Amino acid sequence: MTAARTDIEQVQLANTAFYEALERGDFDEVSDLWMDSEDTADGSGADTDGEGPEDGDTTGDAVSCVHPGWPVLTGRGEVLRSYALIMANTEYIQFFLTDLKVGVAGDTALVTCTENILSGGPPPEGGGELGPLVGQLVVATNVFRRTPDGWKLWSHHASPVLAETDDEEGEETPT
After folding, report:
1. Which pTM was predicted?
2. Which of 25, 29, 47, 117 has the lowest tally of Cβ within 10 angstroms?
3. pLDDT in tens, 99-139
4. What is the secondary structure of 60-112 as a DSSP string?
5. What sign results for the dihedral spanned by CA atoms 73, 135, 143, 113?
6. How far apart are CA 128 and CA 132, in angstroms?
């Protein structure tokens, strides 16, 4: 029998499952890893903070996502459509996560990491198995919430890391 995992270990597993599902292009698993209206603290799907939309709280437990260069996507439908679009237009993607940090406070967890992404598009005309591979550095924050079905993504925010150019590295101040 395996020992019960700590909250941090469970969050790390959920975070890893998210990136592995993206790599496989497994839309069903990606969908399962995001919160939905039934994943609120009491399992009823109701807003549990006492401030529903009628009280001025227009977000409630809505999920959100920011992909690099995209506007904020709010709501499960918008977020999942974005992943379907990304998966449909990406032949190959692999994530190497570095600088991973996990913090848990009650039923909320925060994961920060650097996504070292390797991706490729469709093959160029005339053959080949895959288009040119492109590397990208992205910093990400993933917020998870504890649900009756385990830790689920509540928010993902990713931002590109600007690469230094040769000009910036050797730049001197004129005298």
Report:
1. 0.78
2. 29
3. 999 999 999 999 999 999 999 876 677 666 667 778 889 99
4. TT--EEE-TTPPPEESHHHHHHHHHHHHHT-SEEEEEEEEEEEEEETTEEEEE
5. negative
6. 10
